[in-house]
TrEMBL record, chain A:
Residues 415-485 form the Transglutaminase-like domain. The chain crosses the membrane at residues 12-45, 57-75, 109-140, 160-179, 564-585. This is Transglutaminase-like putative cysteine protease. GO terms for biological process: proteolysis. It comes from the Bacteria. The lineage of its organism: Bacteria, Pseudomonadati, Pseudomonadota, Gammaproteobacteria, Cellvibrionales. The keyword Membrane applies. It holds the Pfam family Transglut_core. It comes from Simiduia aestuariiviva. Keywords: Hydrolase, Membrane, Protease, Transmembrane, Transmembrane helix. InterPro entries: Bact_TGase-like, Papain-like_cys_pep_sf, TgpA-like_C, TgpA_N, Transglutaminase-like.
Amino acid sequence: MLIEQIPRNSQLWLFFALLWALAPHTSHLPVWVLGAGAVILIWRWQIYLGRWAMPGRLIKTLLVLVCAFGIWRGYGSWRGVEPMTGLLLVGMLLKLLEMRHRRDALLVVFLGYFAAAAQLLFAQLIFETLYCTLTFWWLLTAQQLLFSGPTAGVKPALRRSGVMLLQALPVMVALFLVLPRTGPLWAMPMQNHAARTGISDSMSPGDVVDLTKSGKLAFRVNFDGAVPPPEARYWRGIVLSEFDGRTWRARNYDFNPGGRGVDRSNQAPSSWRLLPEAARQGAPRYRYQVLMEPSHRTWLFTLGVPLSVESNKRWSITIDQTVRTLLPIADRQRFEFYTVDMPVVAEQLHPFVQRHYLSLPPRVNPRTRALADQWRATGLSKQALIARFENMIQERFIYTLQPPALGEHSVDEFLFQTQQGFCEHFASSFVFFARAAGIPARVVTGYQGGELGLAGDYLLVHQMDAHAWAEVWINGEWLRVDPTAAVAPSRIRSGLRAAMQNNADLLGDPLSLMRYSHINWLNQARLQWEEVNYRWQSMVVGFDGDRQSAVLEKLLGGMEPWRIGVFLLLAAGAPLALLALWLAWCNRSEPLPPLLRLLRRIERKTGIERAPGEPVGQYFARVERLLPEQTRLWQQFSALFERGLYDDKNAEAVRLIKAQLARIKRQSAGGEKPINSP
Amino acid sequence: MAAWLRWPRFFNYVDVGFMLSAFSAALQRRFRNWVNRRIRPARTVTLGQRNLFIFPSASGWAYIFTLLLLWVLGTNYENSLILGLAFLLLSVFVVAILHTYHNLAALRLTLGEVKPVFVGERAAFRVRIQCKAGSGKGQVLNVGWRNEPCISLSLTGDEQDVELWAQSDRRGWLHPGRLKLESVFPLGILRCWTWLDLDAKALVYPRPIASEQAPWADAEGELDAHFQRAGSDDFVGLESYQPGQSLRRIAWKQFARGQGLMLKQFAQSEGQAQALDWHFFEGMDTENRLSRLCHWVLYLDQRGLPFSLALPGQVIPMGQGDSHRDRCLTRLALYGLETRSAD
């Protein structure tokens, strides 16, 4: 058996394609693996140049150990996307080092396909997709060079594989549209080490300010109806109800008093208590799709509370009527919501729970407590207390992204000394005040506002839209109170950028396009790009089973197998059939020159075939011997053919032969004997 | 006990391996018969749907496995783009079927003249492979007879000759069988191949074996003295070559010096005509006799002596020159194998 060698000309290209496939992974690969990879590549290069020998077993074992150590050290675990990808890449590199035969090289190429695809586990923007497609092109070219013999050039191979990719594209689109999405076959490990972004489940002074420096997208929302006005865009995310004097924290969800009157529903929407139907009439309802950017957290953000749950149960509703996913959001995901923006009814709080929403850490903020006691003593109603507080901050307080630092009694210092702060300061101090005044209250964090997309039917919510506000329990329902709105109404109406018009330095990164949004054309370009990205995300990346059925319904008017079969046949079969026809057309035999065609006619008529390679003169001499009574005719033909073959006046000879043949035909039709009868 | 549980016992009594091999042999036989029916013998063959077969190669199955794994990856992470890549690989596979087929389709193979050889030599079959000019077809072809090593080549122009060898082991007609032509170009994942019957055969002359005694009797019944010193030393001079004369006597050394084609002249070449006779080698078996006769035919031809050849039932009259020699050798090669005379 012949051992298939790796063509030398293909090796260089293979190196290039693999480096190209590896490049996007360098950002997450541990240093040890990168080092080993560099050694491997250099070694292989030296083998290619014929300077070094293949590495011995000792060195290979050493490299394996270094890589394994690197992965274990760098990721701290074997599970997860990154260690898996790391192992894959290490395997590819090691195979590259020890490849000898063509099948080894082929295996490296196949692993390269995986490495390219693994890139898309980390990011799925248009750029990454284009990059990955290029990787596939390079790898297909490398694969082709492996089978193209030792003299093949890279350029024709590149052209051919490019052509094949283009021809495969329509078929791929058809398959992409039609082939059913089965959903995960088994659970896969998710990313371990990705930085969590966005709002967290705790809030200390300064947390939200940090977020507002980021122009990164948090999520996109596509509304089925009109987009709600800015004042109504409170994206409710996390309820924080535990306070230690400095930091607000979400309630531990194991805590479930289980008492009467407590809303225990974290699965079924039917058990929430909403206001009676009549009272619900005016409450705005929204139907929308949220395309979450990967946050590696489990929080989802909704306008109010959901009225229905998703069929595939990726999320559930917590005891605080917020929405949490079951798994951290590691990639862009689409969620459908149908929510109503109205107070959540809890008619009566269990005393235990009420205590929770009134609890304050002892001995902090004595002045605020005193103020609350003092105001309460005047006999004001709860609403009036809240109004008075809002009035107080509205008159004297300043909304700023650069609040002075706060000490031990943060609320006291904020309310009575600095009086400058950001939404978190306002929300935090308000809730503290309300609790001190005997009103059950809690902090809610999420996003407020959002930028209208170019098409006008979707919203872009950025990290800088992060916001904190409060909810108070009055008359059996949780009411939203936003003290920030009292201080900086423009923040609510037009967003942070408008509120901070004269303070643009605060918008963080000088490279962030958000910073230049006052430059009109740049802003237009940014929004255009966002638009393209949004379409990409929603139509391609987010093309899941649900969306597939919707598109196919619309496209085919039904989901019956025959419709899909016919569609697949047309969409995938037609380009292939066209290609096959074109190739067949390329293969058609060339038409014979006119003289040879005439000669064939004579051969058919006489029944005497010309031997392969027999000269015309010799042929007619043979015909003359076999059919002697037309001697003159054959000599004539012979002369004409010779003239036609060797003379420039080819057309003239063809014309004469044709005329002669026509004459014979007329004669035989007129009752004379045909030429081949002896 | 359920009936299906008793199945293994059935295998105790039946030689499964034998059954399987018999089954596969039967399958192969059927396939060969089908190929025989489908691809008829012809000296010139154009490749097309009638005679080309295509199937995934071993690498092709690995490729399919790879794209399946990609599909699983995409499905489990619900990653549309990775699914798209898996579909892209699948589509490339489908498109590659057309490309692999197109690489061979419409190629024309023509078997050229085959020169006779002596037993033990390898016969050269020259096959001309042609394609339409500029079509870029015929990349990385593997061509070879069944049971012989393949030759790998790529068409650079619109036609190329390839010489295929077959080992001869006995005189008569050598049939190398069907010609295999295959290619995995461009991606190596699909194998397109054909088994062509080019009606290839080569004439194999008997192996020449020198005998001590010349096969003709002198008047005295002794061997002529000059035959005992048969060899180069009876060379006497050169004469200029005339077309049709035996190439065996060409003086290549002189030709290489640029003196033109010359024939070596040997002493006694003006000697008397000889009659070669089968019956001279009494007591030998057929093959040995034929080998001896073959040697003397060559010997006499080399010296330009006229000779006749008598075999049981056939006599070739006295003659001289290449065509006479070839006729004699052909009779020797086919002696006893063909009933009908070709002359």
